[in-house]
Structures are given as C-alpha cells and as structure tokens.
Amino acid sequence: MSDTTRLADLMAEKAGLVSAIVARVKTLDEAYAYTLDVCDKKEACQLLPSGCEADLSAEAGALCETKLGKIIAAPGLSADQTRAFGEACTKAGVEFLTEGMRSHLAGIDIGFTIAEAAIAETGTFVLDSRSEELRLATMICEVHVCVVPVSTIRETSFEVEDYLRTLAKDGPSYVAFITGASRTADIERVLAIGVHGPLELHILLLED
Amino acid sequence: MQTARDLKEYRGELKSALDNEFLRTAMDNFAVAYRASRAKAFAGMDVDGLVREIALAKDQAMARMDELLAEFTKNAEALGITVHMAATGQEANEIIGRIAQNANCKRIVKSKSMTAEETLLNHHLEDLGLTVTETDLGEWIIQLRHEGPTHMVMPAIHLSRYQVADLFSDVTGVKQEGDIQKLVKVARRELRAKYAQADMGISGGNFAIAETGTIAICTNEGNGRLVTTLPRVHVALVGLDKLTPTITDALRVLKALPRNATGQAITSYVSWMTGPNECKAAPNGKKEMHVVFLDNGRSKLAKDPVFSQVLRCVRCGACANVCPVYRLVGGHQYGHIYIGAIGLILTYFYHGREKAKNLVQNCINCGACKAVCVGGIDLPRLIKEVHARIQDEEGHPLQSSLLGMVLKNRRMFHTLLRSARAVQKPVTGGTPYLRHLPMLFARGQEFRALPAIAEKAFRDQFEDIRPKTVNPKYRVALFSGCVQDFVYPEQAVAAVKILAKYNVAVDYPQDQSCCGLPVQMMGERESSRSVAEQNVAALDPAKYDYILILCASCASHLKHGYPDILGPDSKADPKLGAKVQQFADKVIDFSSFVRDVLKVEASGFRVDGRKATYHAPCHLCRGLGVTEAPRALIGLGGLEYLPAEEEDVCCGFGGTYSMKFPEVSSELLKKKLANVEKTGAELLLTDCPGCIMQLRGGLEAKGSAIEVRHLAEALAERLK
C-alpha cells in the first residue's frame, strides 16, 4: 500500500470519527456533481436557514429571510473552476455565489472549498482563509463541502508547520484547521452539532 | 465566585452545593465519562513523554518572557497590529474600553476568554455604555444569568436544560422548551444577529506565537471565527503566559490540550490569525487589530523559584475534571474565577489572599490533578505552599501551631498519646472505638466511628516480636508512622510476621516519630522540617537495604516530600546532605516489597477463597505509582479479588481534611462504601492506616459486616 493511500484511508477514518461524511472523487467535476446532489437532497422544502423555525426574538427573526432558492458559495476557486461549477449550478437551478457573503449572514446552503493540506491523524483539513469571502462562506454555510487533494494529506500536524510559517511570515494571514462540523456540549454535556458554524461537513478525497 | 469571609461561611456554602442534587448528578456523570474519554483520546500515545516535553518548553519560554514579548511585538507591529501591555486587570479593561471608544465601537461580540473573566472585562465595558455579548454558548448562558463560570471549558455545566430554557424564554420573549437541540438552534439564530451588528470582536488567545506574531485560538462552536471575522475591529486579550516561542511549540501543546480538556483529538476549529486581514466592514477594507497582553502578576510568577511552574497551565480544565472535591461541590465553590486545582493557586496570585484563603484549605491532597496535568505542574504541593504562605502572612491558627509544637517534640507527642490511652476507657467503653466522644471533638464526625488508642503501641511490642534471622537475605528498617504505632499496631505486627517467615532482618529505630505529613499539610513548615530531620537521623539509610513503610501516606511523603523539605534550598541541617536522597531512595511500600523484592508465591499462603475487594490509597496509586502489586497480592494471598468501581478515587480521609471538612469527607466515603458494597465482597483490603481509619469507621457507623484489613494482615492471617 502506498503512503498516499494509507494517509487517505487514515484521513477518512479519523474524519469519520468526528462525523464528517467522507467520499472519494476522481475529478473536480465529480465533486461539483456530488455537491449538487447534497444540495438537492438538503431538505427540499426548506426555505428557512437552520433554526429559523424556532421561536425567536423579533431581532433574530428579522434576520431569517425567506430565500427564493438554494445557494452554493465557492469564493476560492480558480477562474476555470468557477466557470465549470457555475455552469453546473445554473443547470441545476441553484444560485452560485463567489462573493457577497456579508449579504447572506442569515445562512447559505452549501459552502464549497478546496483544501491546501490535510492532517490525517486527526482528520483535519487546512484552509488558507485570508480571503474574507472564502472564510465567511465556510462559516455561514449550513453544509460545508471540502475537496481534499490526496497528495496534500500529511500524517501529523507538525508536517504542516512549514506551510503555516511560510504564510505567517508573508504578511497577514488567517489559516483554519477544520475538523468536523461546528459543535458544543455546553448544555448538560449533551452533544449538539451546528452551533455557530456548519451543521454538516463533507470531505471529498480527490485522487490527484 | 468567592464571597465567604471565613472558613465557617465557606463550609456553609459547601453544604448548599452538596445539597444541589442536579449539580451532584451532572458532576458525577461527567467525572466517570471524562475518565473514559480521556483514556481513549490518549490511547497509544506516550503521554508522559509529551507532558515532559511541554513542561520543559513552557519553562524555557517563561524564563525568557521579556524576550518573547519583544519578539512578538516586533513581528506583530510589522504586520500592523497595535500591541498593548496591561500591568493589571483594571488597566487591561481600560485599554480595551479606550480602543472601543477611539474606534467608535458600540456593540461588541466576545468569544471565550478566561483572561477576560479574570479582569471582569464585561462589567467595565458595560459601565462605559457598550453592549457586550458573549458568543460561546456556555459563556452566553452565564452572562445572561450574571454568574461566573463553573468550569474553564464548559462554563454552564452546573445548569440544567430547563434552567437554560427559562433563560432563553426571557431572551426571546417566547416560551422555550427544555429541548437541548432546539435551545442550541435558538442560540444559533439569536447570536447570528449579534455578530451581524457588532463593530468589535474580542477574543482570547490560546497561543501568542512570538516567531510570527500569530494569535491562535481553539474553538468548537465556530463563534471564535465569526467574532474575529465580521466586526471591523478585533481585540485579542492574552495573558503573558500565552507567549509561545514557535509554531512547533503551539502544535505540541495542541496535541495535548483538546485531549485533556474534552477527550477530543483536536477542536473543530483551530484558527491561526497573523495580523490584520482583509475586512469588508472596515473603512479601508482592512481589520483594525489589537493585542492586549495582561501581566497581573505573571512576570513576577515567572521569576518565582517555587511557583513559576503554574505558568505552564494550558487552561484545559482537566485538574477540575478529576478532582473528587470539585465533583461534589462544583466550580462556584471550588474556585473564584479560575476553578479547579490551578484555580486555587491562581486565585491567590491574581485575585488575592482573601479570595484564596478558604479555597486552598479545601484540597484533600489526593493527587488526581497532578496525574493528569498536561504541564506536569505539582498542583497539590503548590496548593499547600499557598496555604502555608497565607498562614505565614495572616498568622497561624492556634490548632495548627499547637499541633506543630507537639509533633516537633517526639517525647511530648508520645506521652500525650499514652496519657490519652490511659484515660480513654470512659470514651471507648472498652471497645476499639471512641464511642462517647464529647461533642466538642466529635462535631460533624458522626459519619464514622473514630478508633481508640491501642493498649500497647507497636514500638513497645517490637522487641518481643523482632525476627530472629540467620544470614538474612535483606535488612530493613521499619517505619510505622504514628497511626500504626499507636492505633493499629496489629498491622505492623502482621507485617513483621511475614518478614520473619521470609528471613528478613528488621529494625525498628525508636527515635522515629510522626512522618510530618499532617503538619506539612497545615503549613507548619518548621515543624515539618524538624520531624523530617529527626526521622532521617533515626533511620540511617546506610545501614539498611530498604526502609519499609506500611502507610502509603507516610511512604509517599518520605520518598517525595523529604528531598524537598530537606533539600539544598531548605533550611535543613546541612550535615544530613546526601543521606536525605539515599533515605528517600530506599523507601519502599509493603506491597512492592513483598511482591517485587521478596517475590512471595501463592504456595506460601492458604487458599480460603474469601471474597475481597480493594481500595487504592491516593498516596500509593498516584503518590508512589504502585497499582499492580497490591492487587496481585490479593490473589497470591489465597483470596478472590472482586474489583470495585472507582477503586482509585479518594476515600475522603485526607488526614486533617476530614476534620476540617467532614461534610465533604463523609460524601466521598459514602460513594466509596457504596462501590465497595456493590462488589459483594466480605473483605475490604487496602494499604494505608489512614484510609483504614476512614473506611472501617464508616462501615462501623453503618453497621456493616464488611471487614477492613491492611494487606499485611490479610496475608499474615493466611501465611502457611
């Protein structure tokens, strides 16, 4: 077994332990298709962002807009990737955004990113989050789908140290380690998923 | 938070906490679940090695705190961060208030920061007319309730879902159900609105990395990310102790922190923020970023030869998670703002003597905290050190000074004990217990029967039972400790019987006295040192292969306490010199000696198959790291071993602790005895006369038929 395969398997195993949903894709097109599928299955009649069905204060309720349709945001893609994914979304009748996250603070359905690196021992992926649009997209989305190119998977956190250092020494940076969905156990130690971040995390291991 | 003015008031508050059924159940469930999840999280890892590395790196870093601060500041300022230094909590609050005013910020959102709790930041900002909203779910809940946190990582763990529902009903103006998933969703929406409106975000920082000027935070909820992204101003408040030299050091701590805190391999998010990033809400498109460093005594601590190690703390909360007293009374009583073992120490340094003086007495010295501390901090020792300091500052209570005076003088001490024995008949009624103790001495002690003083002390029996050996394999000095000497001599007699059978030459030097642990715990340093000197002089380590001790507390104190108490920096008699370490090296507990040195075999004992269970004395399983030998001996000794739940949780004795805090001691005992009874065993075995006093006393008070024996007695009874 090659080291890449071993690391990909370890990544899948550890990410699975924190309830991330892991799938394998061979191309980015497959990743876009997967994402549209998730979007489609995502509570088809749901128009309100998660939690808006609850009894809220007037102020909070006001932020709950009724959306006209589903939204996928993918601010960090290259021009080619943006075009390809954008077309696929339009075909599927889903709104595709690359910017304007601050106008959608109530929530968007899916945030789509491609990771810079991953740490297999904890099932973590690493995102260069300097771009505010990308960063916000990963925070306000209800479902985060992240493509992790298998060649970027390292075993331990120490192996991404140089990456962190390089970015840090090159002007302002914001690097995110993401492992699983947003969670808390603050009330009676009962686990609740989806607090101030995504409720679901999908990791697509891209064979590259 | 601490408001009790004296010990009596503090004990009253403890009693209320003990009566809080919800809290008790929540904490019990947590304690048991935590143990399992921590073990799972660290499975397959060299935890001791990692802790050693972390401790070393932290010590090296704190020793050059000034350098790191300069390096961080240089890198941070080059990035465009404004770095501030606050000498006190008040100063930090004022600095942050001014930042808000200068930037014309009115609405603040905060992610979790114990440092901001320490300075009471929110109160100051609210007094300035600013709105502050905590966004971490637990912190938001306690903010709404105007309470302090009861845990460093789970601040609202003391509350039920129904209490939270009531709270959220007030917030939303709509009745909320006690459905946790729904309540979390309500928080999600309510706080989302706050993020959207805020103009300033305040965060803490787990690491302030000097080599790059990076602030890194570990969160699970995602609130830290929103707080540091949406508002146009970001202020990070960090204690100087968060200064970390390199990213490597941060990653190393990161390996341990989440595992120790919540049993997670890593938190959902770790955000590495280096400098002011793009921010579309800011007028120039760039975040206005500030880092405020808090001193509040940290730089002084860094130079303190005894206490500098507290700066190794990574704020994981594990010391609270495993503390048997915290488990019973919760964070509001076992801390002031910082809770748990580290909280007891930090309260003295950060919030003053008044707030700390009652707290530091409430440590039973079981060592559970030290065993899990990721920084390897000697928490029990430091807590007692703070207690000693407070007493030196405020004056020693009469009780304490008297005990110190008596124990120093061996002859006086032993005379008092013999005199007490002479007059105790009316109190014992001829039984082995002090049944009719005057109320003055017995207040709060009804939960266990206290033992009488033995007819003939062990020291007076020894010459009659000294083993006659020919070419002995080993030569040992027996140290009995005062309880086995005057209350339970039969335990030492049993041990001697076994030693005789295995051809071990035994000495019992008569000049030995109390080991000194009680006075050490009470902060009577001079007395503690004096008895230590007496004992080392009395048991010359050069003459023996081993110094055998049947009392786990004494053994642990002699082995680990004496080298400190009589160390090169102490005021001890310099003539003792190398003898002290030689003495400590030769100290061995009964089980280890019998199983690992004598290597007794099952064939040496009669099998009667009686069912026995085990209690692990704190000072044996954690103090000396001995866990296997005693349990193996139960089987070797011909008994059937039935393991009990939570064998290594404290019995509640804690020496003077059970006299000072009988209400807590009795609850710990209750739990221990319930676990013992569940096994169905007829015998309860252990290796510490202190524990035996507590356990036997408690079972006697309950009218139970379960017999409590020292392992030596159980083995001697079955010796062929």
Record the strand order, biggest sheet of chain B: 1-10-7-4-2-3
Listing every helix as H and every strand as E from the N terminus to the C terminus, the arrangement of chain A reads: HEHHEHEEEEHEEHEEEE
| Total strand segments of chain B | 18
Number of helices of chain A: 6
Rg of chain A (C-alpha, Å): 17 Å
Provide key terms for this protein:
heterodimer; A: 208 residues; alpha/beta; 12 strands; B: 720 residues; 6-stranded parallel sheet; 4-stranded mixed sheet; 18 strands; 51% helix
Q: Could you provide a short overview of the structure?
A:
The complex is a heterodimer of chains A (208) and B (720). Chain A is an alpha/beta fold and 208 residues long.
What does this structure look like?
- The complex is a heterodimer of chains A (208) and B (720).
- Chain A is of the alpha/beta class.
- In chain A, 31% of the residues lie in helices and 26% in strands.
- Chain A is built from six helices and twelve strands.
- A six-stranded parallel beta sheet of chain A has the order 1-12-7-4-2-3, sandwiched between helices. A four-stranded mixed beta sheet of chain A has the order 8-5-6-9, sandwiched between helices.
- In chain A, strand 5 (117-119) and strand 6 form a beta hairpin.
- Chain A is globular.
- Chain A starts with a helix and ends with a strand.
- Chain B is α/β, with parallel strands linked by helices and 720 residues long.
- Helices cover 51% and strands 11% of the residues of chain B.
- Chain B is built from 37 helices and 18 strands.
- In chain B, helix 16 (340-351) packs parallel to helix 19 (379-394).
- Chain B is elongated, with a radius of gyration of 28 Å.
- The chains are: A alpha/beta (208), B alpha/beta (720).
- At the A-B interface, helix 3, helix 5, helix 6, strand 9 and strand 10 of A face helix 2, helix 8, helix 9, helix 10 and helix 11 of B.
